[in-house]
Structure formats: structure tokens, C-alpha cells
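S1.2 Input.
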Amino acid sequence: MSAEATNPGAPLRRRSRPRIDLRRIGRVALLGPASRGRLPDAIGHVADAHRAHHPDADLTILRRAYVLAESSHRGQMRKSGEPYITHPLAVTLILAELGAETTTLTASLLHDTVEDTEVTLDQVRAQFGEEVCYLVDGVTKLEKVDYGAAAEPETFRKMLVATGNDVRVMSIKLADRLHNMRTLGVMRPEKQARIAKVTRDVLIPLAERLGVQALKTELEDLAFAILHPEEYEHTRALIAGSGGDEDPLTEIAERVTTTLRDADISAEVMIRPRHFVSVHRVRVKRGELRGTDFGRLLVLVAEDADCYAVLGELHTCFTPVISEFKDFIAAPKFNLYQSLHTAVVGRDGAVAEVLIRTHRMHKVAEAGVVALGNPYTPDGTAAQQSEPADGERADPTRPGWLSRLLDWQESAPDPDTFWTTLHADLAQDREITVFSTEGGTLGLPAGASCVDAAYAQYGEEAHGCIGARVNGRLATLSTVLSDGDTVQPLLSSDATSGPSPDWLDHARTAAARIAITGWLDAHPDDTQGLVGQPDPRRQPQPQQPADETPDSRNKQGARVASVAVDGPGTAVRLAGCCTPVPPDEVTGFTVRGGAVTVHRRECPAVARMRADGRPPVGARWNDDGDRRDAGECRVTLVAESFGRPRLLADLTEAIAAADAAIVSATVEPPSEQRVRHTYTLHIPDAAGLPGLMRAMRDVPGVYDVSRAQHQTTTT
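S1.3 Output.
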């Protein structure tokens, strides 16, 4: 990361300490002279980088960790021919440059000892304490599975589990992958490509989400060079040829410096070169690169208010490109990033992008969660702290997206589902926060719907969701939520109800999609009932007389529930478009496969099929003269009402009071203050349907309740 931002409280001037180039770490820089007695001096670079961020840090524990790591790895060599100790040293130096605290650096030095040497976790715990032991164990668990094509998903599942308990585990893993990517040249090309692809698809998005831009950008460039060598070489040539005596960014930077100095705003202005992938993306987007496209201006100030003062001066003294303005200070990104983005036009029409932030914002923008220190101590210091008695660790730096990943990864049924869902979740680059009526908050990806909120709040209980209130108003489950909305999912009292396949079209979170898919896979026979058709498993089966034979049953006609149709051995089902119940007049039609679908006679589908010349099949309710034998059934009702507060709650209460259970429900968007509700209900006795409809009509605001007449196609 840039040396200018290593100490937020320092005066605004360029530091004299030379910046260590992480890309050029080599064994000479790490090990110094070959003499065995000089090896402890190899941590000198680590100590210097660490003291730049933490001047009062006690380096004793780092020296002890190095001695143990070097002695345990002695004799081991990397594939490049270097002593193995160069790897943990390089990883630790990367983290030290980012500002990691002492505990993280200690664990980084030891991160391979338990996996690759005779050192045990008990030894680490005894010599370095519980916290270091916990981090080393977390990283060790990530190395248990080889990086094979089939094993990769499980490796990253373990990574998420370990990271969820402590984000510093992921920090060490990212630095470990960065050093390995730097030294991939000794491996076969196909192995380089495989590791680079996984790095691009999973680790780089994770680094982005943790806010560790310094690692993310270099990982991007290294993966880009391996996976797209021709584009990389072309981009490298463009960057190499961009330097010249007439750099337009330099001229604009000088004007900005003068402008801010004249306005008495203390600020540091510098040119921040774009990395290779960034230049490549700009070239693809614009086709032809301008001189100012190879970098951006970075303005560092002391306080938040100074950021807006700089913005005001730039927009006053330069021509701003308003479409490029973004305020990530007032609305930070999900990965802790804060900055003002704008663009100004210089002389000759040159456009320069400008980033405005405080020193503290810059440190977090580069190092993300690494810059936040130890999340388990109030002051961020690396104090030793024992595991809580209940075994849970509450990490205040753990972002909402990581909590969601940890939740759904436990439900992923297999590695392939986990891998696919992980890719989809990492593709979400923006978060929203919505509020529950119970006072809590839910972090959801942008584009999330009421379905996602229901599963985020209630888990599998959301299978019975029948609607929602958004900001106090009734809304469909497909309603897309906005940042700051208050959402109240409404659940059915019917424990047997489940989600519709249509919900998958509205779900954006992995947790919701996995839960819905799991329910649908476990209830394949319930999908017809979900769209208004009766569930045969819920229909009462007629009692079979003791002397009844298969032949005699065929003579009586086929039956389902309390319906009989003409035709021996015929499968029967009730039409979902009109949900007939006794004592409706019914008729049937033969559909594909030879089954008979029974409709109410006034159903629009009946008239359509008669017009098509399809012959009806006789159908009748089985009635032994006792109307009480009508039996339980499902029915779809449509309630027309005027919109008002608590309408859905009152309707639901009326339905429950009539001893009916809601199987599914939809609420159409209000039109001219009128709302249309469609309910599929399970009622214990068809004879109670008229009373149920009267109870619903008695709800204030409801002006009509009728049986559903859907325009469906029967084949």
C-alpha cells in the first residue's frame, strides 16, 4: 500500500522511509547472508514495516515465532529451490505492509508449521497463547484438502467457516495466495491456469469484499497475466509507452495542488497509477485510451469535512463531469470503502478522475479489515483473549455478506451447489439494509425481494410466507426492496404450506434459493397444489367396503376424494383453475395421458374445450345423502377490497376463525386504491365454504368475495 497513508495522524507530507515493493521480495532481501547465525535478521524488513504502523509494538513474540518457524522448516525447500522459510516470511511481510497487528503476524509466521512440520497446536498454544493458536488452526484447516478440481469447492467451504469465526484467518490466506501466485512460474502451465482461475473467480472477489484492495489488485494482475497473456502483454506495452514529458495528469495535479493551497486547504495530491487490469477495462470500455486514463488523482486530507471542502473547490475551479460524482463517504460500500469520486476537465479537454479521502479512509481502502486490528479487543491491540465460554466469537468487523455466506453454506446439499451459489453470491457488488418491524436490521444484496427478507428473518419458517408489508403497505413477495425499507413478512398458520416455484424468480440470496429448491425437491407432488390445484395427499379417501373388488370398483367409475367420473380405471384430478367443491355442478374432460380433470360447469375452460369439440366426461360428487360427508378440500377465493391499513391481517384472521388454512396467497399491486387478494385455502368441510365467504365479506373494506375463475389451458 502507499506509504503516504501509513499513519493517519502524521503531518501531510511525503514520508522519507522508502516504500518496500512487495512485488520484488526475494530470498536475498529476506535471508541476507547465507550464514546460519544471521538468519534471525531476516525479519528485519517485517519489523520495519510493522513499526511503521505500530510504533510501540513488542517485537519479542515475532522473533520467537520466527525462530520456531525457521527451525521447524529447516531442510524443507520450495519448488523454486528456495528455503521454505522464505514463504512464511514473505506472507508476513505482505501483512506487515498492510498494517496487520502483532498477533496476525505471529500466526502468519507459523501458519504452515502445524501442517508441514512436527510442531503441534498444543506447542503453539503453550508458547504463543490461545489467540495465535486459534488463527494457526484456522489457516491449517484450509490446507487439509489438496487443490484438485473436485476438492476446490470443499476447500473454500472450509475457508468460509474458518473466516466466519475470525476475519484474520482470511487475511493470512489471501497473503498466502498472493505469494504463491508470485511464484507460480515454477509450475506446469496447466496448473498455473487452474490456480489462477480459482484465484480470479473466488479469492479476488473475497479480497474485494474484505476491502483489501492492495492484495486484490495484485492478484488480479497476476491472474490476468496467466489467463490472458496476449491482452496482458498488450496492456503492459501501452502502460510502458504512456510515460512522457507531457503527462496531462501531472499538469492537472499541479493545478489542483495550487487551487487547494490558495483555498488554505491542507491536502496531499498525488498521481495514483492504474494497475494492469484497470487499464485493460478502461481500454475495453472506451476503445482508445486517453493520456489521463493511465492513472487517477488521489487527494488525502485530515478530516471528513475537508473531503467536501476539496470537492467544492474542484467543482468551482474546474469543469466537473457530474455523471462521474459518487459519494461513498455518506454511503460507504459494503466492504468498508469510503471516498468521494469525481472527475474534472483540464486544459485541452483532458478528463482526470479524482479520489478524495482522509488518511484513515485511505488506509482502510487499501487494507480493509486488516487495518482494523484485533477485532476482539476494544482498542484494536493484539491482546490475548480466551475463547468465550459458549464457544461463539462475535466479530464486529464481519460484514453482512459474510454472515449470509456462512448461513447458507451449511444448507448447500453438495459441493457443486455450494460452488455455483458461491460464484453467484460473490457477483453481488452492492448491499442494502432493511429494517424488520421487530426492531432488527437485515443486510441483503441489492435487488433482493420480500422473499429474500422472509428467509433471512425466519429461515425455513418462511416456506409459509403468504405476503409482506413494506413500509406499512401490503406488497407482493416479488417486490424489490430498497435501502432503508421496513419489511414485515406475513406467514401462514398452515404448517404444511410451502413455496411456489415462482419464488425462485424473485430470490436473490443464496439462502433463499437453496431453501426453496430444497423444499420443492422434497415435495415434488405439492407443486400443483401450490398454484391452486388440490393436493391429492390431503384429500379424504373413500372407505373401501369389505366385499369390494377391483372389478366392482371399475364398474362404479374412478374416484378421487369424493368425485366419481364415468370410465373404469381412470385417474381423476380436480382442476386448479376453478377448484370445484361440493355441491358445485361439475363436468370432466380427458387430458393428456388419459386422466380426467374435473371442472365447475361455469368455468371458462369448459366453454373453451366444448368449442374445441372436446367431448365432456360425466362427473358427479359421491353423495350418500349426508351432506356432512362432503369432506375437506382446497378452494381458491378472490377478495376485492379497498386498500387500508391492517386489511391483510384482518382477512387472515377471518380465514383462520373459519377454521381454514392458507395454502398460498397473492396480493396484486393496488390500482386506484383497490386491492385484489387471491387465496388458495384448505377447508375441513366443503359445506362450510359459504360461511367462510360471508366471514371474508364482513371484513371492513372488502366489497366482494368470489370463487376464482382462472383462464388456464388444459391439454
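S1.4 Remarks. Residues 333 and 430 are 7 Å apart (CA to CA).
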